[in-house]
Design brief:
single chain; 128 residues; mainly beta; seven-stranded mixed sheet; four-stranded antiparallel sheet; 0% helix
C-alpha cells in the first residue's frame, strides 16, 4: 500500500503563487510516477501534470504549461507543484495520485484511471 497526502492549499490572489506538496509513504519503492489532478465544483477531474520518479521527466496540461512546475525530492519522497501566476480558473481541489505500473507511453499519465493511490485533496482558491 502507498499513501499520499497533499498539503499547501489555501487562498491566493490572482497573479500570485502557491506551492503544493504531496508526501508519499508506505511501499514507496513501488511508485513509478505521481501526478496532480484538480476538480472544480460541477466539473470533471482534470489532469494538471505528472512526473516520472526515476528520470524526473515531467508532463503538463496545456492550461498550466509555463505557469506550473512539478518537481520531486526523492530522499523525502515528496512531490511539489509550484503554481505561478494563478488565475481564478485554477480554483479547484487539487489531488495527488501515485502510479505503480510503468507504461512506456506517457499519455497514460493524463488518465485518472492509470493511478492506483489517491490523496484526499487540498483546496486552492484564487480570488480575482
Amino acid at each position: 500500500q502507498v499513501q499520499v497526502v497533499e498539503s499547501g492549499g489555501g487562498l491566493v490572489q490572482a497573479g500570485g503563487s502557491l506551492r503544493l506538496s504531496c508526501a508519499a509513504s508506505g511501499r514507496i519503492f513501488s511508485i513509478v510516477a505521481t501526478g496532480w489532478f484538480r476538480q472544480a465544483p460541477g466539473k470533471e477531474r482534470e489532469f494538471v501534470g505528472a512526473i516520472y520518479w526515476g528520470p524526473g521527466t515531467t508532463y503538463y496540461a496545456d492550461s498550466v504549461k509555463g505557469r506550473f512546475s512539478i518537481s520531486r525530492d526523492n530522499a523525502k519522497k515528496t512531490m511539489f507543484l509550484e503554481m505561478n501566476n494563478v488565475q481564478p480558473e485554477d480554483t479547484a481541489t487539487y489531488y495527488c495520485a501515485a502510479d505503480r505500473i510503468y507504461n512506456s507511453d506517457p499519455s497514460h499519465l493524463r488518465q485518472a484511471g492509470s493511478y492506483d493511490y489517491w490523496g484526499q485533496g487540498t483546496q486552492v482558491t484564487v480570488s480575482s
